Amino acid sequence: xxxxxxxxxxxxxxxxxxxxKKIENIIRDEMDKAGGxxxxxxxxxxxxxxxxxxRDQAFGKGLFTLSDRRExxxxxxxxxxxxxxxxxxxxxxxxxxxxKLLYQIQTKFRDEPRPRGGLIRVREFTMKDxxxxxxxxxxxxxxxxxMLRAYRNIYDRCGLPALLVEADSGAIGGKDSHExxxxxxxxxxxxxxxxxxxxxANVDKAESVKSKVAPEESLxxxxxxxxxxxxxxxxxxxxxxxxxHTLKAVFYVADGKLIFAMIRGDLEVNETKLKNILHCFxxxxxxxxxxxxxxxxxxxxxxxGLKGVKIVVDESVTPRxxxxxxxxxxxxxxxxxxxxxxxxxxxxxxxxxxxxxxGCPKCGGKLSATxxxxxxxxxxxxxxxxxxxxxxxxxxxxxxxxxxxGCYGIGLGRLLxxxxxxxxxxxxxxxxxxxxxxxxxxxxxxxxxxxxxxxxENLYAKLEAEGLEVLFDDREESPxxxxxxxxxxxxxxxxxxxxxxLEKDSVEVKWRSEKESRLVPLEGAVTRLKExxxxxx
Length: 537
Ligand SMILES: [Zn+2]
Hints:
alpha+beta; 28% helix; binds zinc ion; globular; five-stranded mixed β-sheet; nine-stranded mixed β-sheet
């Protein structure tokens, strides 16, 4: 299918390329049906365009840049909002010119910190990106729904059961966004969902109703010796208090500044929520050295009397509860720590990660979790890009407004890889017919038998003439080798011709997705195969 050239950079081999082209054709067809118009934009983009919208900072090191001979910096496009919005600003003047749905299928570049998972996380990839331009929010909503329908059609036609989930906008920006997820055991994304009301969200975005702790009478602070006690579990065991009565301190560095995040001991910090609240470009876990430099004792960190560090407190910490917190000296903790009596927060917000078993934020039902692969991402951008780049239109009364935008992406290679993750068994790939590299795997056995090779050549020519796509295994290999390769490649229908099937004037037909094979009379075999494929298409 593919061959690696460098980390996160791949060549497509002939079979992989055929799959990619089929996916591309399905996507193009659905975009056109939804009213999209295809165009072509350059990979090379001036850095100044990115500076105008500030997204050079949001993409940070993910942006590939290079210098030309005049020492001007150019960007290898990771996405095309800037280029297209500027173009639209030159050509759209009136409300009569809108709405517009413009798209391309093109190569993108993103300098991923950790390229991995074959085609799942790569640095160069092909993407379909459509952009919508509307006069108002209602228009955007209409375009957005149109795209959601088109995306559903794409996954249906590829034979992939993708789920629609709420998502975080990340570096793209904007307010609302959704992802399509394909459930896969080793998918790198986690989806939180409710069976009762169909609420579903990427864990980065997911909300949940956490277990409640009843407010208590505030008690006096009390220092206790806790030799060797570091983790929440150890604190809870040593002092015999439940984990939801402990305070967890987690340190981050946001754009170079140390952040002290406080959360109830039984919960975890959601880094995406934290990043959004801090409005920072880069967020990472603090190192031991970062924490030490601020005069804080890791494992016994206390928010009390802390200076020069931004404190972000999760909502779970604000009820009146006598928490156990670090003492900010070795082997010491403090009991009965209360907010806001004993420590202040710079920001109070929901920064907790949702998890299975917690309550659904919509209906109160119980949440579940599963792993998935993101195979599509759509965004309501609003007007921040059109304002930055001056993409305005004049309404009926002659007043000027920024154009309301949306953007809609599908990575083609990622869809290919996700399809394999979803459809395989221990023998190999099991392609859904619409995106399989070929329809038929034609497999003559014992080709030294002239009748076998004659019938095979003849059948090959007839199937091709009828428009069926046939991979002809004309190698001099044993039946075992051929069958194993057929299973590995996962072409939907295997047609075997051997002296034994010819004794019955038949060929053997086997679906890759089924265990049993069947004999089909040679006479009329082409028509039968055509029918099979039509039915499944
Ligand atoms: Zn629910």
